[in-house]
């Protein structure tokens, strides 16, 4: 059978009527043999067993019918990031080609793992691609992550509480990876530490904001210096120290606070659709356009800031926007979440659903975790196919 493949620019490759052409199929009943002519192969120099073959005729593969059996396929080779199968077959004497059947893949199923580098810090890690949910009821916070339709969950979170033995000092983060999990994992393990090291000894709001910026940029540079890294991650962090709340973000992870029951966004999403972000990108030689109704940088990425994205680093910067405020009695709780929530649930809806569980407690054994799950389930019920991560942090504990 002569085959020609039509190559197109479509991201989705699908068969069409133009995919297969010049088919030649010869059925020879007396010998019960099927001959497939492959015109792209070199002609055979000799074929004494076939009276129709000649040095000028196309090379033929002969399949004896019925087949003699199936030969076992060679073993699959597993790499660190991919699985590849290599199959080599040779025709035995007489021209019969034995078909080889690929072996079945046995995918292990396991629970999500948590890696705690120290007694204070918890970093969510889901190395198994099959992990669909991660939940944690921590010291003064709760978080729930649910995988979307991807093969691997790309969201991560981190939490460091009881800093320096002081329960009123902590730092939290939610990280939404894209193009793989490496950037989100790296940020979850390093960003909060780099921010804390940078803010030591800083007092004024300007100094603190500049220190947080250095923490983000240091993390970004360290990730890009790693070997074989790809993809990126949006980030939102919330640091509490001496009654002050410092919220920073790069990308479209968002922080929303309940102020007496009213939702107040403490961060602004970094997307190419923002006028100031689009102007910054175009000023530096990039372009922004829409694809399937979504604004993208260079026709590719739908966020304009974050950790990683080395191939777009000229336009996708890691510099965060930071907001600092003093916690008072009206500040009830904080929601940190990935865009998997915010694309389907409004700020006020999220506060209304979480508030009964965060203010005044409840009858549930783990009220904060129940609230996180309710928010995630609401977004999923509205059609979100993205990974969804929600972290709730009551603020009265830090006053």
Can you walk through the features of this model?
One of its GO terms (biological process) is abscisic acid-activated signaling pathway. This protein folds into 2 domains: 1-67, no CATH class; 113-270 and 305-398, PPM-type phosphatase domain (Phosphatase 2c, domain 1), CATH 3.60.40.10. Helices cover 20% and strands 29% of the residues. The protein contains 6 helices and 23 strands. A hairpin with a 2-residue loop joins strand 14 and strand 15. With 399 residues, the chain is α+β, with helices and mostly antiparallel strands. It has helices at residues 182-199, 205-224, 275-283, 339-342, 347-358, 367-381; strands at 25-28, 33-37, 60-64, 71-72, 77-78, 83-84, 100-101, 113-115, 121-125, 133-138, 141-146, 155-160, 170-178, 232-241, 244-250, 254-259, 262-265, 288-291, 294-297, 307-308, 321-326, 331-337, 388-394. The strands form 6 sheets. Strands 8, 9, 12, 13, 14, 15, 20 and 21 form an 8-stranded antiparallel beta sheet that branches. The chain has a 6-stranded antiparallel beta sheet with strand order 10-11-23-22-16-17. It is globular and about 50 Å long.
């Amino acid at each position: 059978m002569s085959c020609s493949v039509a190559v197109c620019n479509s991201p989705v490759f699908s068969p069409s009527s133009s995919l297969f052409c010049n088919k030649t199929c010869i059925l020879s009943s007396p010998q019960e043999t099927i001959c497939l002519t492959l015109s792209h192969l070199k002609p055979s120099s000799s074929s004494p067993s076939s009276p129709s073959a000649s040095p000028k005729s196309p090379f033929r593969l002969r399949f004896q019918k019925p087949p003699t059996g199936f030969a076992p396929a060679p073993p699959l080779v597993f790499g660190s990031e991919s699985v590849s199968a290599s199959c080599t077959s040779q025709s035995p004497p007489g021209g019969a080609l034995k078909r080889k059947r690929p072996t079945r893949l046995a995918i292990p199923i396991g629970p999500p793992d948590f890696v705690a580098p120290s007694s204070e810090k918890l970093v969510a890690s889901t190395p198994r691609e099959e992990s669909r949910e991660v939940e944690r009821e921590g010291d003064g916070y709760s978080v729930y992550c649910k995988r979307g339709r991807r093969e691997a969950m790309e969201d991560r979170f981190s939490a460091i509480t009881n800093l320096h033995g002081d329960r009123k000092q902590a730092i939290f983060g939610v990280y939404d990876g894209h193009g793989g999990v490496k950037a989100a994992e790296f940020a979850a393990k390093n960003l909060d530490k780099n921010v804390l090291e940078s803010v030591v000894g800083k007092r004024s709001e300007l100094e603190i904001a500049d220190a947080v910026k250095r923490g983000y940029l240091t993390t970004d540079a360290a990730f890009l210096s790693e070997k074989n890294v790809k993809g990126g991650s949006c980030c939102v962090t919330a640091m509490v120290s001496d009654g002050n709340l410092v919220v920073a973000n790069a990308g479209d992870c968002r922080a929303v606070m309940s102020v007496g029951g009213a939702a107040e966004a403490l961060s602004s999403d970094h997307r190419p659709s923002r006028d100031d972000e689009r102007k910054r990108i175009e000023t530096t030689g990039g372009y922004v356009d829409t694809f399937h109704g979504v604004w993208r940088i260079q026709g590719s990425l739908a966020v304009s800031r974050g950790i990683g994205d080395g191939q777009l680093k000229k336009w996708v910067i890691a510099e965060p926007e930071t907001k600092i405020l003093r916690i008072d009695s009206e500040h009830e709780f904080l929601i940190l979440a990935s865009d998997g929530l915010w694309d389907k649930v409004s700020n006020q809806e999220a506060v209304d659903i979480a508030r009964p569980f965060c203010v005044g407690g409840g009858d549930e054994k783990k009220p904060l975790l129940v609230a996180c799950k309710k928010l995630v389930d609401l977004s999923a019920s509205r059609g979100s196919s993205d990974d969804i991560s929600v972290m709730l942090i009551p603020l009265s504990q830090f006053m």
